[in-house]
């Protein structure tokens, strides 16, 4: 998870970009922070999906094959 300070800085830079504009270094910092945020979000979302099992009304596992394969590949990777 991204720290509260980094999220606050992202928001501060976004607000400043809308009002007065950013310097080149601030724009670069903003892009770096946004990329870090997106990467963290994607990792978190993928982890949540790996903890999901889809079950139909009869109790049968109907988890999509792509998700099952992704879970298997995740379990094979060294942590």
UniProtKB/TrEMBL annotation:
Q: Which InterPro entries match?
A: DUF896 (IPR009242)
Region (Disordered) location: 56-79
Coiled-coil stretches: none
Gene3D superfamilies given for it? Helix hairpin bin
What keywords tag this UniProt record?
Cytoplasm
Tell me the compartments it is located in.
Answer: Cytoplasm
Q: Which GO terms describe its cellular component?
A: cytoplasm
Pfam families documented for this protein: DUF896 (PF05979)
UniProt feature, compositional bias: Basic and acidic residues: 68-79
Taxonomic superkingdom: Bacteria
Q: Tell me which PANTHER family the record gives.
A: UPF0291 PROTEIN BC_1827 (PTHR37300:SF2), UPF0291 PROTEIN CBO2609/CLC_2481 (PTHR37300)
**Similarity comment:** Belongs to the UPF0291 family.
Q: What is this protein called?
A: UPF0291 protein M3202_04330
The beginning of the lineage is: Bacteria, Bacillati, Bacillota, Bacilli, Bacillales
């Amino acid at each position: 998870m991204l720290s509260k300070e980094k999220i606050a800085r992202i928001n501060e830079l976004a607000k400043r970009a809308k009002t007065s504009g950013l310097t080149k270094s601030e724009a670069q910092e903003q892009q770096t922070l946004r990329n870090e945020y997106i990467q963290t979000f994607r990792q978190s979302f993928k982890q949540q999906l790996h903890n999901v099992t889809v079950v139909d009304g009869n109790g049968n596992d109907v988890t999509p094959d792509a998700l099952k394969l992704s879970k298997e590949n995740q379990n094979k990777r060294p942590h």
